[in-house]
Each structure stands twice: as structure tokens, then as C-alpha cells.
Specification:
By secondary structure, this protein is an alpha/beta fold. α1 links the parallel β1 and β2. It contains three helices and four strands.
Length: 86
């Protein structure tokens, strides 16, 4: 029997913004367990639920505080908005 590769858990800190949501969605769609981190754990939970609906529940997305997400992940990504020159 062939072993399935182990996928790492990815935390996206700032995962409730546009960039963070996009990254979380794509990684979850690829089969990774994704932790969405936010300063507000309630907002992170809501975002994770919204993305799970888009993926029809076929992926693992969890919302948490930034601190909790970072502690539980193998890989941590910081997603912040880009501000270009005026």
C-alpha cells in the first residue's frame, strides 16, 4: 500500500483580509490543513466557515487567534495589506 504524503499545517496570520483569505483558500483546496489567524478569533472562525462553504466542506480550515494559530502550525505566513506609493 502506497503511503500518502504528510501535508503540513499552515497558519495564515492576518487570514481574514483579502490576501489571507485567498492564500488560505488555495492551500486548503490543495489539501493542507489551514489555520486562519486573526486578532479576533471570532472573525477568524467566521472566515474559516465561509471558506469551508466555498470548498463544500472538503478541506480542513480552522479559525483561531494569531497566537493560537502560530503555535499549532508547521509553517506560518504573515499576510498584511500592501500599501503602494501615493
Amino acid at each position: 500500500m502506497e503511503k500518502m504524503p504528510l501535508l503540513m499545517t499552515i497558519a495564515v496570520l492576518g487570514g481574514t483580509g483579502k490576501q489571507g483569505k485567498g492564500l488560505a483558500y488555495r492551500w486548503a483546496k490543495a489539501g493542507y490543513k489551514v489555520l486562519i489567524g486573526s486578532r479576533s478569533s471570532e472573525k477568524a472562525v467566521t472566515t474559516a466557515s465561509e471558506l469551508m462553504e466555498m470548498l463544500e466542506g472538503s478541506s480542513s480550515l480552522v479559525g483561531a487567534s494569531n497566537h493560537e494559530a502560530a503555535e499549532q502550525a508547521d509553517i506560518v505566513v504573515l499576510s498584511v495589506p500592501y500599501s503602494g506609493p501615493p
